[in-house]
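User: Look at the shape:
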Amino acid sequence: MSDLYVNGSSYATGWNEEYKDLKFVTPAPSYADFLAELLGSDQLYKHCYNGKPPQSSVDQTIEFCNAYKQKHGSLENLKVVIELTTARYRQWQQIKDKNGKDVQPVSFPASDNILELTLYFMRRYMDNNTLQEHGEEIAMSDISESELQKYYDEVKMWYPFEMTSVASRKEIWKFVTDCVMHLSRGIQYFDENNIDYVFWWVNGRTPGTRKILGGISENLGPRVISNKKFNGTDIVDPDPESFNGHPGRTGHKKIAQGIFDYACEHNYLGTNNG
């Protein structure tokens, strides 16, 4: 028996049509819950919110693992799954609300038009006693114009596409290089701390994206599951309960089974920490 930690984005939250207005973990079960059942996990920790970028996934997973070790004395009883979104998703610098408290902007571009950004603001923290994550959405009206401008200036620096929604190859590799740096940093931490883990990609619906992300996976090793295995189309489209590119119950069960089978095939269910 073991504990399972899943750091993820909207797939892991269980986001669907019924809970389309929620940004954090929903009452609907996701693949994380079904994977915990397959593993016979004693405890499931889901640290998830919509649009989470790769850097945040790595940062927050390391934060959790350090707190878990502090609480339990070791990492022997822990397995980690990190759900990755597109490399273009960014962890923006925090800004302040009108009361001077830190606020995290979360924004991500549409798959077919990088100029169309989904945007919201949030505040999150982890309870070091329970190791559970807590998050709340912050209204834009609670943030001053000067603080909002700091966010917009950073967006323009990373998404400088004034005349076209199509990123150049040079711009794409800027994101890829940054993503690989953060994933490599996470891998080094997991290896040094003898943690059983896998990364997996949720996106890759276009041939170009699948090729890029597949190359990243191959470069980073077998514990980074290629999007070729978990391409959203293969999991979502046959599922009548899918909504806006996100799986329903059937799709989530397929993801959980796929991760479980992959871990079994590669002997990842205890080779590191028993």
